[in-house]
Structures are given as C-alpha cells and as structure tokens.
Amino acid sequence: MRKMFLFALSAVFVTSNVVSQEVALAYPVASIDLDGNLKDWPETVNWYRMQYFYGNDDESNEDFSAQFAVAYKEKEQLLYVAIEVLDDDFIGDNGQSHTTQDHMLLYVDALHNIQGGSPLFYVASDRVLEVHHKPGTYRTENHFLTLDKAKVARKRMGNRIQYEWEIQMEGQIKVNNTLGLDFMMIDHDRSSSNETLLLWKDGFGKSFGSQKLGDVLLLGSQTRTGKVSGMIDMTELSPLERVNSIDLVSQEYPNLWVKTMVDTTGHFQAIIPIGQYKVSPNGYFTSPMYSSGFNQNTHKLSYDVLQTFMVQPDTTISVSGIIVAKQPQPQINPPAAEGLPISYVSESDIDKFVAAWQSYLDIPAVSVAVIRNNKVFYDKEFGVNSNFTKEPINDQTLFEAASITKSVFAVLVLRLAEKGIIDLDKPLHEYLTFPNIENDERSKLLTARIILGHRSGLPNWAWGGPGTWESGGEIQLNFEPGTAFGYSGEAFNYLGRVVEHITGKDLRTLYEQEVARPFKVKDSHFFYTDEQEDRFALGHMHQYPQVKEKERVASPASAMSTNAHLFKSFVLGLINEKGLSKNSYQLIYDPYTELTQEQKLYDPEVPQHVSHGFFVQRTPFGKLIAHGGNNGDYDCKFIYSPEQKFGFIVFTNSNLGDEFTRAFEEFLLPSSSKRL
Length: 676
Fold this sequence. Notes:
Blueprint: E1 2-4, E2 18-19, E3 23-28, E4 47-49, E5 52-54, E6 64-73, E7 78-87, E8 103-109, E9 120-124, E10 129-132, E11 150-157, E12 160-168, E13 177-188, E14 195-199, E15 214-218, E16 225-233, E17 245-250, E18 257-261, E19 267-273, E20 275-281, E21 301-304, E22 309-311, E23 316-326, H1 347-361, E24 365-372, E25 375-383, E26 399-400, H2 404-418, H3 448-452, H4 489-503, H5 507-516, E27 540-541, E28 544-545, E29 561-562, H6 564-575, H7 582-589, E30 593-594, E31 608-610, E32 615-619, E33 622-630, E34 635-641, E35 646-652, H8 657-668, H9 671-674
Parallel strand pairs: 2-4, 3-6, 3-15, 16-23
Antiparallel strand pairs: 1-5, 4-6, 5-14, 6-7, 7-12, 8-9, 8-13, 9-10, 11-12, 13-14, 13-15, 16-19, 17-18, 17-20, 20-22, 21-23, 24-25, 24-35, 26-29, 27-28, 30-31, 31-32, 32-33, 33-34, 34-35
Helix pairs in contact: 1-8, 2-5
C-alpha cells in the first residue's frame, strides 16, 4: 500500500529545514568527515523528505521515515549524500543475507541526460556494500562508478540511523549541472514479515531509466534561486489524459534542467537557479508513461509554449500560455478496390502507413513482414535500435517476442504429443509437481491441454515474473482448472518445466529440435545470452529507453527473441501446415476456450476463441489465427489466414507498439470485413 508523508518531520528529526519536492539543490562544502555523524554538515544545507511510502497502513512517520541532503566538492570531484532515518525497530547484521536486514539502495545517474539514461545503484547494509550496473553497451556513462568509488559510513543513535556517502564522480561534478539521484530505504520489523519502503521520487524500476530518478542541481556557493509558478491549459484532455510533468531547461547551461510535477489542475511550481529557461514537454501522449495495456486509443500531444522566461532572485515568476492539445491520428487508408486490402495494397501504400504511424507514436524501431498468396510480399525494417544510439536497425536486429513465445512453445508441445512423449490430458503433477500450488487439491486437475487453452486457474504471474516461483510462497488457484478462461504465463512456465523433466532436455535444445529446424527459423533465440546483446533493439516506454535486465530464464511464456524477417518462416510454415499432423493443426484451429465479449482481445463484434496456444477470430473469409506479445517496452503480433494464405508480422521496441499494430490490422483487415 502506497501513501505519501505530507506532514512536517521537524519535531522528530534533528534538522528542521525540510521540504517535499523532487528537485534537490546541492552546494559546495569545505570539509566533511565521513563518519556517519552529520553535525559537520552546514546548518544552511537543504534537507528533502523521502515522501513515498510503501508498506503497512498502520505505520506512521515516527515508525519509519527519512530525509536527505546533498553537497559536493568540485575540485576533488566528490559527491556527498547525508541520510537521516527514524526507525522504531532497526534490524542490523543478523548473520543472514542483507535482504533480511534494514538496508538501502542509492541510485546515481552521472550524465542524467534529458533524453534518459542508465542509472546504477549501490546497496548498503551493516556489513555489505555492493554496486549494480545494468549490463549492455547502450549507455556506459555510469560504468566508471565502480565499487571502489563509493564509501559509506553509518551511525546509530537510538531510533535514529545516519548514513553518510562519499562518491568519486570523475569529472561529472560541474557547477550548473544536473545529476540523477534517488533512494530506496528498506525496513524490516520483527513484528512483520513484510518490507516497508521509502522513496524520494515515486515509482519502482528506477534502474531501468533515469527519468524515474529525482533531479539534483549542482549550484555555486553564490548562486541565488527564484521560484517559478505556472499553469498548463489542458481543457481538451480528459482527466486520464492529462500531462503530469514538464521539464524546465536552462538556456545558459545546457546540462541544467529539472523535471517539474504538474497537478490535476495544470499547476506547477519549482525553486530553481536564476536565469533564462524554457518549458520543454516530456509527456507526448495521452496514455500514461508506463502503460502497456491494450486498446488505449493513444493520441499524440502538441504544445503551444511560450519561448522563454526569466527567473529572478527571491521572487516568483508566473508562467502561463502553455496549451496542450491532441493531434489527430494519421488517416492512411488503402486504395478503394474489391476484396481485402491485404490482398491488393502496394508496397508504397504500406511504406506510407508505417512512416505515418511510426512518426506519430515515436516508435524507434519497427520490423514488418506481410504475406500474400503464400509468399512474402513485404519485408522491411524501419528506424533505430534506440533513442540513445540512433543506430539504424537491420534484418538481424532482435526484438523481445514476449507472449508470441507461447504459440511457438505450443507447437513444440504438440510435436512432443504426436511423438507420445507427453500426454495432453495426463495430470501434470504425475510428471512433476508444482510445490507452490500442490496445497490446492484442484491443482491435480491441471493438464497440458488445459494450460495451452488458458484455463489453468493460475494468475498471469503469481510472484512477479518468470523464475520467481522458486522464491514465492504457496498460492490458491483462482478457479478450478478447465472451467473458465484465465490468461497465464505462470501456467505455461510450469508446463515448460514439465517438458524439460520428461525429455531430460532444456527448452533451448527442444526449441532448436522441434521448432527452429522443422520450420527453418534462423538466428532467433528461445533463451537470452550475452552474445545477443549487440543485436537487440532497446525497449522504450514512450520516448524513454528502458535499460533492463534481460530474461535469463528459458521462459516458454515470454523469452523468445526474433524479428519479422526471421519469424516469417514460422508463420509460413503454419500457413502451409508444415511440421505438425493434420490433427494437431485442427487443435490450433478449433475452439477450446470460447471468449466472452469482455475477454476478447480484438474487435468484440467478431467471434473469438482460444485454441491450443493461439487466439482465433472467426470471419466471413475464414479463420484468423494470431498471437500478440507485450513485455511493456516491446510489443509485437502475428496474424494469418490458413484459408486465404495471407498474414502479417510486426515487432516494435515501444510500449505504444500495440497502437501501431491495431492500426495496421485495421489498415489491412478492416473490422467491417471481419464481422459475420
């Protein structure tokens, strides 16, 4: 449960000049002894509250609260961070893992580019100091921050714990510069098995991208500040579409900028150094920044912004005239002709569609293939692998296939069933138990067929994602297996473990034997390895790159990597019923789980069902077999008609890829043509 501490802490903390905001001002200091005692910090230093609280509702700020201050030495290139914590039940070194003790994470982004970055974080507890970098070569500006660059001292005085950090920044300490910084204070109490968390800026996944960190402004000792207060006119937007932040960018110092929160009325304010600034948008779409849902009908935003404004010392400058409106979506229609557009649109028609929608949604990379008359008619890649590098992609660039992996795995399982290696109707616990659910007697009803048809009763991810079941506790099924629809990656991964157990082979080997070779799928992968890193397009949330850890679990629900050019061989094989028997293909076509109006992923007016690992739309021109994939910062889909011998494949590296794919499907296969 999240709550926000909005009340003053001066009665319980030693320091009293504490403010709540996501911009911190840091000034130079002459001398600080790194001993955990904060008494040598200047009395004039600004303290900032860690205001976002996740934990038990019955905890108050006297049980667990924190504040921090930042200072620096430019000549020595040292960054100092002081943290003061109040904790009524501190758990220090207990001889076990630091994850069972009170500890903290300190996130740092040295460059803190306004376009995003790749933060690192340090972990500190009683006896542990670690550094964690995101792997990869996309952004390495923080890789110099190794373990030996950081020192931390801690002192405990009753219920007060004080941390003092010193970090060697190697040329990144510059006056009139912005750094990225944030915290996660993690509290364990003897009376509860749950953690309580405190953050400065709201939101998790901070190491994925620096836009999730707070901003620290490095100011000179004589730098004066002023206040800016403004209004944004969002009359045209609904409450769910409103902008929640903007950037204020210095016109004199290019690396001095702050992200400023905008409230529900459109008001924003910030205390910033004097000088000339401009308002720079950072929210360009009506859908939320970290959304990855379906059917959002996202619109791009346009900003009518005044040119610049001047912040004066010790005064408040009022800013107005900022108007945000929705841009109309592209209207790229196929030429009028007889039949379905997919059967007659030209290559240039598709080029125009891709160019218009990729630009409108700011999707960095798109990989598209279109099949017509049982042949690949269109096969192209567009864009760059990330907004960091701007390097063009090619036909070997990899995208996360996300849940498309499920259809590939379903084919693998059907091939094993044909060989008599697995019985689709045999209870899986007779092959291999699932300890986390065996306390629920209904789990003994689970079979491969039930899982492939998404009727398992397991949630999509019970413990947070692939591989997390091993550290997860016991759960109860949501319903009796076989009685209802419930999409579940967790169930597919259980079936994956069963398959590995039965065959004595890992999924990577089975994929090569049962899918890649029979369907002639080249240079695609069922399991991530470091060797693939340089081939990957980086995922994005809106315009911000997401530098996340790749799945190193062979997850049959989500782990495949490929692109439209490489994956077309698999879809062509399905269209021509290769690699499986007629009976198995009938299992791909026939209804196993009929979908209600609310459960349908596509046009709700079109009858739809789940078969064995695929979603099927029933249309006047035959079946449309499909599966999509959404890992948040990647979105993709394939769809094909076995009767008409056509289909398309789209891979994107953006959370807005679903918007692109739905528009592309409407362009090639209009909803009006699919309704019975």
